[in-house]
Amino acid sequence: MLEGAGKPVQIAIRRLGRTANVRLAGEFDLKAAPQVREQLDGLIDSGSQRIVIDLRQVRFLDSSGLGVLLGRYRRISERGGSIYLLTAAEGSVRTVLEMSGVRQVMPLLASESEVPRA
Fold it and tell me: Which of 17, 71, 87, 116 has its CA 20 to 30 A from that of 106?
């Protein structure tokens, strides 16, 4: 079995005004990408201006997941919004985000207290 081909991603969403907090758990891979993309696009289309994506419980992130994150960043930026990523201080997901250059466009934060207040 290929790494990343295991348990599906779980998504929990909490909206507070124009801010949406999205918690992902599991594996954010090719299989999960369409579901996550659909949920994030729905938040953007319904007016969310700030999306905080909690990746601290994601065990695996591949290029499909990266593509979803970067594509949603582009969509929300065009509307004047922002995305913030919560990641563990160490681990493979943070390493992938740093090595791919995602850190250059979306802040990688260790806790919700680091998210700038609106």
Answer: 17
